[in-house]
Design a protein that fits this description.
The complex is a heterodimer.
Chain A: E1 7-15, E2 21-30, E3 34-39, H1 46-54, E4 61-66, E5 69-70, H2 71-76, E6 80-83, H3 97-103, H4 117-129, H5 145-158, E7 163-167, H6 175-190, E8 194-198, H7 205-208, E9 211-215, E10 219-224, H8 225-228, H9 231-238, E11 261-263, E12 270-272, H10 287-294
Parallel strand pairs in A: 3-8, 3-9, 6-7, 7-8
Antiparallel strand pairs in A: 1-2, 1-4, 4-5, 9-10, 11-12
Chain B: H1 2-10, H2 12-38, H3 41-50, H4 52-61, H5 65-86, H6 91-112, H7 119-124, H8 132-161, H9 163-168, H10 173-195, H11 200-214, H12 218-243, H13 247-265, H14 271-281
The chains are: A alpha/beta, B mainly alpha.
The structure holds adenosine-5'-triphosphate and magnesium ion (MG).
């Protein structure tokens, strides 16, 4: 296997044909053996940054290089893979799961793209790794959202890329699948791969991402998660559009003490007070609830 | 009985017409799988009309018609690409503007030189009167198209399905795009003789669309479309002897009939299948 790769994005500015500058002067650097989150609001340019790193759009300024290689050269060596956002794929296309994973192997095949035993072995292994081997003969439209994601992840694995870009791999995916994907990403990190993951799921970022890039039309900050993922930086990135649950404004009271349960499958948390009663994030709209519960005896 | 069935085959011009139709029908059908999946049906229509001025000029100055047709076809394709990148117009509007411009220019040229070109031949095709040099042009175009498709269909499939993946594997997407466009123009030129500019698009779409209804595997889709293309063209050309009707009309009517059958009876996506599934579910 080839050597670990780093990503170097320098002063990248991308303008769409309609004149819209979606990204300007974006600069960051990531080393191998990293899972990096790409975080920003809708329309902040996450997908655009991916497209620039993959060479799908040509930056008007700036450069992207991978481990010192030009993008083109890195792609020729099958070093970079892209797992698209679900909306970008034509799910009615007459191809099977197996066909899609095989497409990850084209770069290793000869002129006629006839798979050899090695290609079949790698494709099979990749499908098994994402737990999709029994679906190999399904048409790709006949899968659930989470299964679709895993198929395209398998294609990236089959490509044996060192750098993998995943655009919102967790939207429309349940907790179990998310955990499976995260586990896989961790394995890949230990093997020296570099993953860049865009996500709206802020809670899971500190769980599995060791680096973050915060973006809003440009790169606002990048670096290790514990340094960069601060309230101040996030407020700057999201400009007040984040969903809050502030305990002092909510219906949580003294009697709940520390026995508060916070559940979340994605973004807006569901909060239960002590004993399991539902808590609301805004006191004003629920004065009656607060009054009723105030009559309950407080624990010491 | 047998004697009447064999009469068309006693005429050399009929045998030629049937065989050439079958060949073109097959090539068009093969390509139609890519055209329908890429969403280029309108493009096929546009190219088949855009070749008309080229054919006219070629006949007027005495060049092989394929050369002229091919050049204006590509010019139209480039023109469409140019207008599309320079304006915010929707693609269908761009295609509509460019191909009608070319077609109109073709009509004008033909009307100015009525002696050297027959408008009916170009617009409706005249396979029964095809000359030997024209047959050779068709055979060469078909052979080249089939060889390129046969060698590179997997790359072209990836290009249609996921051009971004193609690019990230280091394939040259621009070359693939241009290859498909060139094959489309060339095939439109070849089909012009059989069914005419108006109906070329049917040969370039209907078999692929029908096969799409019948399978969800690309390999099978290619097979079904090709068999349908060759079969309907052979039978259509043969049958046109008895109707004494337009060859192109016969072939395309036959293809459309097969499409309707597939639409109703297809095992998975057909109207009946979906209905009985809904019944079973309720
Ligand atoms: N093809 C395009 N042409 C013109 N503008 C575009 C195009 N694609 C995206 N944009 C614009 O560029 C900006 C960045 O878009 P991008 O898709 O990169 O956002 P994103 O961060 O991925 O958003 P999301 O979280 O919704 O996926 C947006 O303002 C969008 O409207
Ligand atoms: Mg996006």
């Amino acid at each position: 296997m080839s050597e670990p790769l780093s990503i170097d994005v320098r002063d990248v500015t991308v303008a769409y044909p309609n004149g819209n500058v979606a990204l300007h002067d974006a600069t960051f650097h990531l080393a191998a053996g990293t899972i990096c989150a790409l975080v920003g609001v809708n329309g902040s340019g996450k997908s655009t940054l991916f497209k620039a790193v993959m060479g799908f759009v040509k930056p008007v300024r700036g450069s992207v290089s991978l481990g010192g290689l030009s993008l083109r050269e890195a792609q020729r060596r099958n070093l970079v893979a892209y797992v698209p956002q679900a909306e970008e794929v034509d799910w009615t296309f007459p191809v099977s799961v197996w066909d899609v994973v095989m497409m990850g192997r084209y770069g290793y095949m000869n002129f006629l793209r006839i798979p050899r035993a090695e290609d079949r072995r790698v494709a099979e292994e990749s499908l098994a790794r994402v737990g999709m081997i029994e679906f190999r003969d399904r048409q790709i439209g006949e899968l659930s959202g989470g299964q679709k994601k895993r198929v395209f992840l398998a294609r990236a694995l089959a490509q044996r890329a060192r750098v993998i870009l995943l655009d919102e791999p967790f939207t429309g995916v349940d907790v179990k699948t998310e955990e499976a994907i995260v586990e896989l990403l961790r394995e890949l990190r230990s093997a020296g791969h570099l993953m860049l993951v865009s996500t709206h799921n802020l809670g899971s970022v500190p769980e599995f991402c060791d680096h973050v890039v915060l973006i809003n039309r440009t790169v606002l900050a990048y670096g290790p998660t514990d340094e960069i993922f601060t309230e101040e930086n996030l407020a700057r990135t999201f400009g007040g559009v984040l969903r809050h649950f502030r305990f002092d404004e909510s219906t949580i009271q003294k009697h709940d003490g520390r026995a508060v349960t916070v559940l979340t499958d994605d973004e807006r948390p569901l909060v239960f007070g002590k004993g399991g009663h539902l808590e609301y994030s805004r006191r004003q709209e629920h004065e009656k609830v607060v009054e009723e519960r105030a009559e309950e005896p407080d624990d010491k | 009985m047998i004697e009447t069935l064999l009469t068309p085959l006693h005429y050399e011009y009929m045998v030629k017409a049937i065989l050439v139709s079958g060949l073109i029908g097959g090539v068009c059908a093969f390509l139609s799988c890519f055209v329908t999946l890429k969403g280029w049906s309108l493009m096929g229509d546009a190219l088949s009309h855009s070749v008309v001025p080229g054919v006219a000029v070629a006949y007027i100055v005495g060049l092989p018609f394929a050369a002229g047709a091919f050049i204006t076809g590509l010019l139209a394709a480039l023109g469409m690409g140019f207008v599309k990148t320079k304006t915010a117009l929707r693609e269908d509007a761009v295609i509509g503007v460019v191909f009608t411009a070319f077609f109109a220019l073709g009509l004008l040229l033909i009307s100015l030189n009525p002696s050297s070109v027959d408008l009916r031949t170009i617009v409706f095709g005249n396979i029964l009167g095809i000359s030997d040099p024209d047959i050779w042009q068709v055979v060469i175009i078909s052979a080249v198209t089939l060889v390129v498709l046969g060698l590179k269909w997997r790359d072209l499939l990836l290009f249609c399905f996921d051009p971004n993946q193609a690019r990230s594997l280091g394939l040259n997407v621009r070359v693939l795009h241009f290859t498909l466009l060139t094959l489309l123009s060339a095939t439109a030129v070849a089909a012009l003789q059989t069914v005419g500019a108006c109906l070329v698009v049917a040969m370039l779409v209907t078999p692929g669309a029908t096969a799409y209804l019948l399978t969800d595997r690309f390999g099978k889709m290619l097979g079904i479309a090709s068999v349908m293309g060759v079969g309907s063209s052979l039978v259509g050309a043969y049958a046109s002897y008895y109707f004494d009707g337009s060859t192109g009309g016969c072939i395309v009517t036959l293809q459309s009939a097969i499409f309707v059958l597939a639409l109703v009876f297809a095992p998975k996506h057909g109207l009946l299948a979906t209905r009985s599934l809904r019944h079973a579910a309720s």
